[in-house]
């Protein structure tokens, strides 16, 4: 793989993190999430921020036991699994999140991160681009240089 592709993927990785870390992503059906599942998902997020990954994973799994189609909990579970080096398992969970809520950007970006960690730069770059296109963020003159001439 060429240096340009690796650098482009690294730039996309950084931009994706900057764009998505502080945003909430809404998807169809989010208003139908049970309060208990939402509480467990939030607990998992709090644990993720504290780097208590195994406890976060358990919390996300419990939320999914209550509500298996909870895309945000699947996405967060994928992030937690990726944080402990279980990239292949993370990708499975992120694929489920994408299947449930294909219009959201978060799971595409997070799957891109997992693929990036596995050294699959071209696949990661394609997913970052899909995430950015779905969210409609990070556009304008500031970002054009990164994406206008990219091969992906």
Distance between the termini: 14 Å
Oligomer: single chain
CATH class: Mainly Alpha
Tell me the number of structural domains: 1
How big is the Rg?
15 Å
Total helical elements: 8
CATH topology: Serine Threonine Protein Phosphatase 5, Tetratricopeptide repeat
What is the percentage of strand-forming residues?
under 5%
**Total beta-strand segments:** 0
What key attributes describe this structure?
globular; 71% helix; Serine Threonine Protein Phosphatase 5, Tetratricopeptide repeat; mainly alpha; disordered C terminus; 152 residues; 8 helices
What is shown here, in short?
The chain is mainly α.
Task: Walk me through what this model shows.
- With 152 residues, this protein is mostly helical.
- Helices cover 71% and strands 0% of the residues.
- The chain is built from eight helices and no strands.
- Helix 1 (3-20) runs parallel beside helix 7, helix 2 runs antiparallel to helix 3 and helix 6 packs antiparallel against helix 7 (121-135).
- The longest helix is centred in the first third of the chain and has 18 residues, at 3-20.
- The radius of gyration is 15 Å and the shape is globular.
């Amino acid at each position: 793989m060429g240096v340009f592709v690796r650098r482009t993927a690294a730039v996309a990785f950084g931009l994706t993190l900057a764009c998505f870390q502080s945003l909430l992503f809404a998807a169809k059906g989010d208003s139908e999430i049970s309060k208990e599942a939402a509480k467990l998902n939030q607990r998992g997020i709090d644990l993720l921020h504290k780097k208590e990954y195994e406890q976060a994973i358990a919390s996300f799994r419990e939320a999914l036991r209550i509500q298996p189609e909870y895309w945000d909990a699947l996405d967060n579970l994928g992030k937690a699994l990726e944080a402990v080096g279980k990239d292949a398992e993370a990708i499975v969970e992120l694929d489920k999140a994408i299947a449930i809520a294909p219009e959201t950007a978060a799971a595409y970006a997070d799957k891109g991160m997992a693929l990036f960690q596995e050294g699959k730069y071209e696949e990661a770059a394609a997913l970052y681009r899909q995430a950015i296109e779905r969210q409609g963020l990070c556009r304008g003159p500031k970002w054009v240089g990164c994406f206008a001439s990219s091969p992906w």
